[in-house]
Amino acid sequence: MSESPGSSPWDDPERLIVEETLAELARAPLALAMVQGSISRLTALRSLMDQCPSLYLESTLVASRRSVDTLIDHMIRVGPLATELDLPLKASLARDFVLAKAQVLREARLAVEGLDPPCDPALADRLRLEAAQSVHTLLAEELLTRILLDGGVAEAAKRRAATWLIHFWDDSPRVEVGDFCPLLEAAWKARNAVIVDFGTLMGNVEVLRLLAAASDDRFIDAFIGETSNPESYLAFDEFLFGLTFEQLRLLRSRMAEQRRAAVDRQWVSGVLGVSAEDLFAPIGSPRLMFREYRRRQMAATLRRIQGTPGPHRTAETILLLFLLERP
Q1: What pTM does this model have?
Q2: Please, what's the b/e burial string for 152-187 (b: 16 or more CB within 10 A of its CB; e: otherwise)?
């Protein structure tokens, strides 16, 4: 299936993987037709985005002058009660496009994994990593939007967040998290390279593994610098174990009651009432990673509203503010 360069939903690495995927699926006509249909719809969404004017263009609506500066001022002014209606149409389309891309890549991976005889498993791994990249991008966009609407963030940091968001919204088919927020990508990759043993639930071994896996020195600087703050320490504790403050508090309380020096995954899953597979979201499962982040984010928001103990921001938000609040 051919696409003009301007309307293609893929960057160059993605295009090569998709072409290889379609070639493999040629021996499974039904799966091939399904994936091609999804790609056609994704391409149509990309075409719709191309029809929207750039957010950097100046225009006048009746007596109202619009520019990127007035857009930033508006985004800062709307505050925490903002809705989708307060943001540009291109913002909604950008998020929908990246979400759709992640879903198409996941569908392609499932189709490839269902081939008989099987193809090279490296292809499914590459599709999985590309889908994870899209999920990382969605998470970064959500974090920046939350910071923009956070009443406790300084205006200068909000302006930088708005600038990054506009850059993404205006060209989301070509912009990924590594292009505008590499620190977040480095943090997630480091976290997903760590094997969580739980053990004493102190996290000492896991912290060393996390720092060793970090590919961006700024993540190490932020981790070391911010964890000196008690609330930030608790947020990074959640980030490291993939559990909420309340879950970790329950586990440590049960450990003390049972006089346990160390615990394993089976014990943790039993106390929390979750499956062992849900305890830690590896990079191979971007959907679980997104769900785990959302669980921590919802818990932080609830604590903030109720004024209860525990971190009021996620570790990812703290990392972003570490960057945004510096000149």
Answers
A1: 0.85
A2: ebeeebbbbbbebbbebbbbbbebbbbebbbbbbbb
> Which has the closest alpha carbon to 225: 318, 327, 140?
318
Q: Per-residue confidence at 248, pLDDT binned at 50, 70, 90? A: very high
Q: Reduced to 3 DSSP states, what percent helix, strand and coil does the chain have, rounded to the nearest 5?
A: 70, 0, 30
276 or 327, which is more confident: 276
Phi-psi region of 317 (alpha: psi -120 to 50; beta: other; left: phi over 0): alpha
CB 137 within 8 A of CB 182: no
Q: Is the C-alpha dihedral spanning 228, 231, 236, 237 positive or negative? A: positive
Mean pLDDT for 148-165 is 91
Residues in Cβ contact with 64 at an 8 Å cutoff, skipping those fewer than 6 apart: none
Residue among 284, 285, 286, 265 at smallest CA distance from 276: 265
Query: Three-class SS of residue 204?
Result: helix
Query: How many CB atoms are located within 10 Å of the residue 138 CB?
Result: 18
Q: Please report, for residues 81, 89, 91, 202, 317, the alpha-carbon distance to residue 85 in angstroms, rounded to integers and kept in the order given.
A: 11, 8, 10, 44, 24
The pLDDT value recorded for residue 2 is: 45
Domain residue limits, the chain: 12-180, 183-324
In a 13 Å sphere around the CA of 327, the CA atoms on its Cβ side amount to 0
Alpha-carbon gap, residue 249 to 247, rounded angstroms:
5
- Residue 324 in contact with residue 147, Cβ under 8 Å? yes
pLDDT band, very low/low/confident/very high, at 201 (cuts 50, 70, 90): confident
Phi, psi of 61 (to 5 degrees): -115, 110
